[in-house]
Structure formats: C-alpha cells, structure tokens
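Project outcomes to date are best conveyed with an example. Our students and postdoctoral researchers have been running inverse folding experiments weekly, and each run begins with a structure described purely in tokens. The record below, which covers 78 residues, was selected by the lab manager from last quarter's runs and is presented without edits.
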C-alpha cells in the first residue's frame, strides 16, 4: 500500500500571508483616517490593534521565508 499525499506549494501560502498583511494595512489606515475625521477614539484604538495584527503577520511571513532556507556549512539544519 503506497503512502502518497499531495503537498501544497509553500509559495502559495506566502501570497496569502502577504495579502493578509496588506489587507490589515489598508484597514488600519482607513480606521485611523475615519477615527480622526469622526473624532472616534474607539476607531483609532481598533486601528492600533489591527496594526499589531499586521506586525505579527509580518513576523510570520519572515519566519516562513527563514524556515525554507537550505542548509549550509554553518547551519546544517537549514
């Protein structure tokens, strides 16, 4: 009985994370502008929350890239 299953292309995940980063960035900017124009501290606070979400996605994106680096003489684990 052969063991076979399909693998997802790792770069397709990078694209999805990148889209999520940019979506959060646009939402953050829109909430800051909306919060300033309407005088809503709640919108500005939520924008800062979305900014922290975006920062964590950037870290995840960088970690995905680092995890796929090939091994070399100095770092045999990749």
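After processing, the design step wrote out the following sequence:
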């Amino acid at each position: 009985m052969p063991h076979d299953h399909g693998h997802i292309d790792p770069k397709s995940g990078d694209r999805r994370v990148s889209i999520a980063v940019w979506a959060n960035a646009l939402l953050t900017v829109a909430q800051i502008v909306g919060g300033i124009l309407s005088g809503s501290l709640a919108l500005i606070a939520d924008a800062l929350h979305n900014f922290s979400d975006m920062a964590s996605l950037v870290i995840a994106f960088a970690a995905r890239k680092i995890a796929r680096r090939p091994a070399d003489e100095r770092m045999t684990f990749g």
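Residues 57 and 63 are 10 Å apart (CA to CA). Residues 10-38 form the longest helix (29 residues). The training component of this project remains on track.
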